[in-house]
Amino acid sequence: AQSVTQLGSHVSVSEGALVLLRCNYSSSVPPYLFWYVQYPNQGLQLLLKYTSAATLVKGINGFEAEFKKSETSFHLTKPSAHMSDAAEYFCAVSGLGTYKYIFGTGTRLKVLA
Amino acid sequence: GAGVSQSPRYKVTKRGQDVALRCDPISGHVSLYWYRQALGQGPEFLTYFNYEAQQDKSGLPNDRFSAERPEGSISTLTIQRTEQRDSAMYRCASSLEHNQPQHFGDGTRLSIL
């Protein structure tokens, strides 16, 4: 069985500050992990993915995430927030050989001027 | 097309009516998925197609829900005798193969009055 927990349904940061969005997972098989972003009235856009290669994954728009097996975490970070980063972010897990994504409940990021 | 296309974007209907939601995947994508997303939640898996074959329908909530993909491309999710609890965002995704990242459409927001 697999599950995802996203701590913090709402996160606010100042423009230029570090962005840290937390994701913890559980999986009975080697996990594949994903971060998706949803801008208002748009679909889910893939930010980055971990599929058992490098543990530090770089994605689009300056985001990156680090897979930490010992902590069962896959937190999303960005060194400097931009106003355009305001959106809802979803972490998802699937497993090696599986196709069903299990999503977290999402974290809405607000960027303050 | 360039991305996954879903129609209609919005659907409002009265309780008891049938609705059909359409998904046109990215050209060449073998795998197609339907998810449902309630307000404040992440997407939840409904069903999965490999070409025209429905490989997994374990997430369909009851027998009022059905899906098809007759020619291995466009898919239709049908809800019969709609109920208010069916109100949600319905998302379609496609991928090159089942173990490749899923690309999502903008979704259909369904409201049952």
How does this model look, in words?
Chain A is built from no helices and 12 strands. Chain A has strands at residues 2-5, 10-14, 19-21, 24-27, 31-38, 44-50, 56-58, 64-68, 73-78, 87-95, 102-103, 107-112. In chain A, strands 2, 5, 6, 10, 11 and 12 form a 6-stranded mixed sheet that branches. A 4-stranded antiparallel sheet of chain A has the order 3-9-8-7, with no helix packed on it. Chain B contains no helices and 11 strands. Helices cover 0% and strands 49% of the residues of chain B. With 113 residues, chain B is mainly β. The chains are: A mainly beta (113), B mainly beta (113). Chains A and B meet through strand 6 and strand 11 of A and strand 4, strand 5, strand 9 and strand 10 of B.
Any descriptors?
heterodimer; A: 113 residues; mainly beta; six-stranded mixed β-sheet; four-stranded antiparallel β-sheet; 0% helix; B: 113 residues; seven-stranded mixed β-sheet
| Total beta strand runs of chain A | 12
Largest interface: A-B, 22 and 26 residues
Helix content of chain B: under 10%
Q: What is the tally of beta strands of chain B?
A: 11
- Mean pLDDT of chain A comes to 93
Low-confidence stretches of chain B: none
Main sheet specs of chain B: 7 strands, mixed
Terminal Cα span of chain B: 33 Å
N-to-C CA distance of chain A: 41 Å
SSE order of chain B, as H and E?
Answer: EEEEEEEEEEE
Strand residue content of chain B? over 45%
pLDDT < 50 stretches of chain A: none
Q: If helices are DSSP runs of H or I spanning 4 or more residues, what is the number of helices of chain A?
A: 0
